[in-house]
Specification:
Order of helices and strands: HHEHEHEHEHEEEEEHHHEEEHHEH
Number of strands: 13
Radius of gyration: 23 Å
CATH class of the largest domain: Alpha Beta
CATH architecture of the largest domain: 3-Layer(aba) Sandwich
CATH superfamily of the largest domain: Type I PLP-dependent aspartate aminotransferase-like (Major domain)
Bound molecules: pyridoxal-5'-phosphate
Number of helices: 12
Low-confidence stretches: 1-11, 394-404
Strand order of the largest sheet: 1-9-8-5
Helix content: 25-40%
């Protein structure tokens, strides 16, 4: 049974509710960040160096991986991972169409062909049966994307990987700390790729990324690929990239990593509160909640609902009028993006991804989200759906008792 919730403070109920508020997070760690940034400036070491090495060790430990290699962004992490695995022209890599653009663009960027297969409707993650059907002799990697902070179904992918000897590159950009059967992302495949984009659960003060692996040879290759393929001493054994993680980013990220688990806990509490309010206010016929699948730890980078019956556009419009943040991740599945016309997909080819793209709506979930803002999101959704009068927290008086 869900607990009754306190009445909303009506005086505060007209405040705008941002979708994310990074200032609120910064305010809680300002002194720690400033002290760390000062330390970095005092050294004047800005590229790689000790702070990056320490962050790499700490992330490796956090993910239970043997190696972690920092780089300039999550996109670069994916590109470098594919390069390190030798993926290139003529190869195919299977991934999800329901993700941020970079998952597929990284495949394109290394000269390979993105093969996009449909998702499972309840998790929004790649469907292993569809992956199995898409494997060809040209398949050189499988790239599950742990979308919105929840791990893809890995067990069948592990079996396919072992059977066909195809490595798995995890796109863990949104899922640091997420777990599948007690194991964290980053060690659920051959290479794990993370983004430190500021809105991620572990976000830097700019772009950044990291790759994790248990394989020492891959780790060594990733390390040199990020510095122009240099083995050291201007000895370029292959052509790589300039994709290094800044020391300043590492400095900031090391401070934030100390808080990551408590922030993740707060995101989970927000998710639980949303679920409770959506249910207790009878909105579940119009709003489908995100599902936490069995054996997973969801880290809720996004709290992504579905708005049913074609009402999403109207709901978004109303939320905008009420100044309540919400967002659509992602409105166009990648198989229907103009730049991927050459792949030959057409509308209707990947129906679950297209349906998700038409229905999803993400609600504010960031760790510092004030309780009254969260309640206002529900109030706003109720208004948007024409239900405002049925909300218990709208009732300022307890229901009248009938005379005995
Ligand atoms: C699923 C996914 N993959 C890849 C990326 C790329 O990361 P970055 O923005 O750090 O390049 C992102 C980031 O937005 C992402 O969400």
């Amino acid at each position: 049974m869900s607990k009754p919730h306190p009445p909303i403070n009506m005086a505060e109920s007209t405040q705008p509710v941002p979708f994310i508020d990074l200032v609120a997070q910064y305010q809680t760690i300002r002194d720690e960040i400033r002290e760390a940034v000062d330390r970095c400036f005092e050294t004047q070491h800005f590229i790689l160096g000790e702070e990056v090495t320490l962050l790499e060790q700490e992330i490796a430990q956090y993910c239970d991986a043997r190696h972690a290699i920092g780089c300039a962004s999550g996109t670069d992490a994916l590109i470098l991972a594919l390069m390190a695995l030798g993926v290139g022209p003529g190869d195919e890599v299977i991934t999800s169409p329901f993700t941020f653009f970079a998952s597929a663009s990284a495949i394109h960027r290394v000269g390979a062909r993105p093969v996009l297969v449909d998702i499972e409707p309840h998790s929004f993650n790649i469907c292993p049966e569809q992956v199995a059907k898409a494997i060809t002799p040209r398949t050189k990697a499988i790239m599950p994307v742990h979308i919105f902070g929840q791990c893809a179904e890995m067990e069948p992918l592990w079996r396919l990987s072992a059977k066909y000897k195809i490595p798995i590159v995890e796109d863990s950009a949104q899922a640091i700390g997420a777990e599948y059967r007690g194991r964290r992302t980053g060690v659920l495949g051959t290479i794990g790729c993370f983004s430190f984009f500021p809105t991620k659960n572990l976000g830097g003060a700019g772009d950044g990324g990291i790759m994790t692996t248990d394989d020492p040879e891959l780790a060594a290759r990733l390390k040199r690929l990020r510095v122009h393929g240099d083995m050291g001493g201007y000895n370029h054994v292959e052509v790589g990239y300039n994709s290094r993680l800044d020391a300043l980013q590492a400095t900031v990220l090391r401070v934030k990593l100390r808080h990551l688990d408590s922030w993740t806990e707060a995101r989970n509490q927000n998710a639980a509160r949303y679920a409770q309010l959506i249910q207790s206010n009878g909105l579940q016929d119009a709003i489908e909640l995100p599902q936490v699948m069995k054996d997973r730890r969801h880290v809720f980078n996004q709290f992504t609902t579905r708005i049913k019956d074609g009402r999403r556009a109207a709901v978004i419009q109303s939320m905008k009028e009420q100044q309540i943040g919400c967002a659509v991740y992602y409105p166009i599945p990648l198989h229907l993006q103009k730049c991927f016309d050459y792949l030959g997909y057409k509308p209707g080819d990947l129906p679950e991804s297209e349906k998700a793209a038409a229905e999803v709506l993400s609600l504010p979930i960031y760790s510092e989200l004030p309780a009254n803002h969260l309640e206002r999101v529900i109030e706003g959704l109720s208004t948007a759906l024409g239900r405002q009068n049925t909300l218990p927290f709208r009732q300022t008086q307890p229901p009248q008792r009938r005379a005995a």
